[in-house]
Structures are given as structure tokens and as C-alpha cells.
Amino acid sequence: xxxxxxxxxxxIAAYSVLAAGALVAVRQQxxxxxxxxxxxxxxxxxxxxxxxSPDLDLAEGKVDSKRHWGILGVLWVPYGMxxxxxxxxxxxxxxxxxxxxxxxxxxxxxxxxxKFVAPGVSLPQMPQPLSLKVTVPxxxxxxxxxxxxxxxxxxxxxxxxxxxxRRVRGR
Length: 171
Ligand SMILES: [Zn+2]
Prior knowledge:
Blueprint: H1 4-27, H2 35-51, H3 64-68, H4 77-82, H5 94-117, H6 132-153
Helix pairs in contact: 1-6, 2-6
The protein binds zinc ion.
């Protein structure tokens, strides 16, 4: 199975090809992409590749993504304990959502703790509901980065849905 570094290289290579293709398509006016959409797609893709890799399900493992979180990487240990390696965390639809939900949960916990410890501190406002124009590139970028990882792992799209589903063996 590919290591974290190989996964990163695959994703970077795929991004380069995609960006070149998109550039040509925009030049030829086959496609309309605003700079904000391109930026959102790229940011979500980078976050999915470097910060929210499916391999965060390795609680004790030295995961590339965990290293990118720096000292906060330790916050991913419970996630790794919650999800078996290459189980639900490596499913195509639910897997990426589990990591987003986990980040949201940790964020809420931290806000809760901060409010308890320092009640006077003013916190940034919750983000307003985003328009489709903003959301679609975010979702596409994030999911594409995740699916490339799963394809490189040899995980099929129906992983986790098949009857008699078992964890894929190995890493
Ligand atoms: Zn993996």
C-alpha cells in the first residue's frame, strides 16, 4: 500500500494534470471558473490531501497528515482509536464525512473549553451558510483528494456497503 508520501505525490501529480486541463478548458471557453472557485477547490483539495487523509485512522502510526497538524496531531489519536484502519474511514462517501465531523466536534469542544476558562473572550462568528457557488468547489476539491487516496489504496467505491463487508487487509 502507498505510504503517506506516495499518496501526497499522487495527489500533487493529479492536481497538476487537472489544473493544466482546466486552464486549457477555460482558455477555450469550454468551462467558466472564477478565481474564487479555483482557490476554494485548491484549498479544499490541499486540506484533504495534507491534513485530512483517510490514514488518520492509524491511531499510533506516524501518519503524514498527523505530522502536518504539528502539536495538534495528538487530537487525531482518538479518531484512530474510533475507526479501524481501512474500515469506515476508507469508505467513499461516509469516510470523508467522518473526518469533517470529527474536526467540527473538536472545534466545538475547544470553543466550549475556551468559553469555560475565559468567559469574556469574544470568539469569531460562526460562518454564514455558504452559497452553492462556493460550496460546490469546496466539496469537489475535498472529495477528489480523498477518492484519489482510496483509489491508490485499491479501495472500491462500494467499500463498507457490501454484504459480509470485512476490513481490507493490510495497510
Ligand atoms: Zn489509506
